[in-house]
Design the sequence.
């Protein structure tokens, strides 16, 4: 029994060592290589705990990257006037664990203020704008987005593509002519 326990401890240490060696390299791999090649997470073999840990880290990384892409999609949709689709994509960019992470970067206040702007909901915008202003006062990394929100506050009710850059008095584009 004692010998079996020692073997189990050695296997656990071996799995931990494999994880420590593989994780920094694997987390940077392109998706297909990480998921399908023998050099990705599969290199951990029967180290199921470590495999699960590495896979969770990779999923979190992908989700973070996808949230960023969703945000930029939301911005381009809003610039193009597709407000409903922009709102949908912007909401998918929210960081669900932002409060638990106690991050200095306040993403959700910026995204939710933008959604309120797109919905033309001044009260909701003001709540998120003030929350973001507080975050920017506490942590400088929030100041760039505060500048965008300030322009949006000044141009509230104007199209996003003008408000984003602070062109509150820009003439609206003429409607397309039906032929």
Sequence:
């Amino acid at each position: 029994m004692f010998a079996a326990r020692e073997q189990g401890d050695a296997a656990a240490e071996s799995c931990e060592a494999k994880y420590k060696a593989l994780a920094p390299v694997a987390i940077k791999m392109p998706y297909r290589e990480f998921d399908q090649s023998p050099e990705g997470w599969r290199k951990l073999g029967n180290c199921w705990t470590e495999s699960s840990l590495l896979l969770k880290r990779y999923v979190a990384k992908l989700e973070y990257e996808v949230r960023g892409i969703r945000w930029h999609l939301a911005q381009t949709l809003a610039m193009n006037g597709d407000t409903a689709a922009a709102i949908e994509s912007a909401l998918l960019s929210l960081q669900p664990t932002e409060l638990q992470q106690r991050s200095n970067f306040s993403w959700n206040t910026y995204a939710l203020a933008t959604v309120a702007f797109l919905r033309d909901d001044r009260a909701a915008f003001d709540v998120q704008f003030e929350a973001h202003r507080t975050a920017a006062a506490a942590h400088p990394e929030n100041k760039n987005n505060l500048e965008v929100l300030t322009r949006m506050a000044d141009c509230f009710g104007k199209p996003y593509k003008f408000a984003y850059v602070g062109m509150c008095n820009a003439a609206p584009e003429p409607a397309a002519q039906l032929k």
